[in-house]
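Appendix B. Extra example for self-study. Work through it before the problem class; the solution is given directly after the inputs so you can check yourself.
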Amino acid sequence: MSDTTQNGPVLAADGTPLKRSLAKALRLQKLRALMLIAPLLLFILVTFILPVGDMLFRSVDNRIVQEVLPKTVVALESWDPASSELPDEAVFAALAVDMKAAAELKVHTRVAKRLNYENPGMSSVFRKSGRKIRKWDVENDGPYKERLIELNEGWADLELWRTIKTYSGTRTAGYFLNAVDLKLGAEGVEIRPETERIYNTMLVRTMRMSLIITFSCIMLGYPVAWLLANLPTRKANLLMILVLLPFWTSLLVRTSSWKILLQQQGVINDVLVWIGLVADDNRLVLINNELGTIIAMTHILLPFMILPMYSVMQTIQPTYLRAAKSLGATNWTAFWRVYFPQSVPGIGAGSILVFILAVGYYITPALVGGTKGTFISNLIAYHISTSGNWGLGAALGSILLAVVLLLYWVYDKIVGIDNVKLG
Amino acid sequence: MADASNNDAFVEFERVQKSYDGENLVVKDLNLFMPRGEFLTMLGPSGSGKTTCLMMLAGFETATHGDIRLGGTSINNIPPHKRGIGMVFQNYALFPHMTIAENLAFPLEVRKIGKSDREAKVKRALDMVEMGDFGGRRPSQLSGGQQQRIALARALVFEPELVLMDEPLGALDKQLREKMQFEITHLAHRLGITVVYVTHDQTEALTMSDRVAVFEDGRIQQLAPPDKLYEEPQNSFVAQFIGENNTLEGVVKEISNGVALVQLDGGELIDCKPINVTKPGERTRVSIRPERVEYNKERLTEGVHTLKAEVLEFIYMGDIFRTRLRVAGNDEFIIKTRNAPDQVRLKPGQQIEIGWLPEDCRALDA
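Solution. Structure tokens for the complete assembly:
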């Protein structure tokens, strides 16, 4: 008690500053808490944070050109890519030395692959030459310019040299530019030829369809969540089981069953033809297009919308509606002015959840989307597992991440993240 | 007001019944007539049907049978929002996403009252409950008592003639509750509104109301002004439910000159006022208020029967003494005496003799 009267830090009974005593007393607790979360922390670090970091790094990583062609990159520094002349003999000599070393280690194919992303056709020039150059004696076999062009006339292509020069840095924006249908030419950033443009369309389509899916989830989920929150417990529990049922079924099974239902010879079309709404030779195309993806994904993501909405609606007491009515509001006014505003945090939480899940969804669009209903994530998967262009895949993934974070930020500004309730 | 006739009744329940499941009646044959300007409290234990009655009046429940009339017209088929009845809810039900002023303006807005008019009325209502400076706040920023006042102001702002209150003070602490009891009654009388007030707190019912309807088992057990209810309970439920009460059981020996002689189960004889016993031989439950029991020999009335009692416990409560006795086999017999300078303080183990005026001891149904 006497401590409070003196100036300076408050002291504990044994004379040490109270703050230090408190920290000491709490240290054990903090240590224990840390120990408890340590396994999860480690797990997340290894399986999530590091891979995401690696992905972000890969989207700009371009060390391969300097690693494989170190002398060439240095020699090219003096060459002006805007000129209409090929680089001089020194550059070709450096290339020969680099290529021989690379071919012996068999890494020339890797740089070939990298540069081929930017200038299709370069891969074969590197591969074919590499095999031959391995046998060269690089000390005496000059002049290299003629010999290389003789070996493969691709080396006489100005574009090839421009590409090497442009992508000689250890960092590149090339993947990102590629991901938005641009490329880095000699004159700077340029738009890709129309035949090569695909990613913008995909990105816009992914966003548009995710919004449509989110919106249909709101429209379908809101009444269900309302019922769940207002039915007597026993009936609500039954309904809750129905809502959760999809969670207990394999995603693949659910998606495949949509195929059966929606295809042109499928259940829905058969029924429509049978009752005469649709002509037999004019069956509806419900699958392998945008519609199919929207239907199947709305169904799959619906629980993620209903559950947060339900948990918010559960906290809205029915007396609010009664109060509004006793004050003279009609059923609709009472709902719209009193109930709905209080349920907005649930809609927000559900929408964020559904939208983020939808934007990155992969299996369902791949199975029911055809070519018109696939998402950007299907392209990412293609680049990661089929084309092997990890840099481009990483850049697309990073853009997706950035878009989601941006939307999250916008949502925070408009509605406020604090208002989001997930349970 | 107690005997309001059918003609000048403002609120009327006529033979109203209510069942939720089609098997049990929650409200059994309710008849109630309220004149304009009355403050009537529906009092009863939970599940007695009082809240159901209030909800039927507000329009949130429909009567299974019977007629509810307001100002002479039947309101059975009028939806709640057209009844124009103000209502205060137990948990206040202030809209959390609106400010206090918006909450108060809500009933005016839905009535399409112009903006300037609206603002004037909101201000007047806020001033009425002494919350003039709180218009811009949110309900969550107010204390329970303040929320209560706002809920009251919101129920009154559109000037309804009838206001219903469903245990509005239930969530407040004792002191605040007592303060609000007075404020609500004063406000109601000043504005001349008719109030139906539901509570399970008998003190609240007694201090606030013009008349109290005691509910039990879906029926009104007694409908009377507070003093009559307390002093002249019509049956043993009311006697037991309102205030503290001592009960002794026995059989009526004889009734003469308005006094019933009752033989208690232990054989002792006492004099009572017959309320709902009519003939000798009937079993009865006798009710005596703790403060009407006398043990000072000098003050005992001549000629009445007295009972022997043993003091079990003496509790000093400041303004009063509360003494627990064993009387005719009943260990829970309480007497209350005022803490006056000449008052005798009884000691546990003491043997005393107690008595009372025959009219204070009421022979009720068994």
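Self-check: Chain A touches chain B through 19 residues (CB under 8 Å). If your reasoning did not lead you there, revisit section 3.
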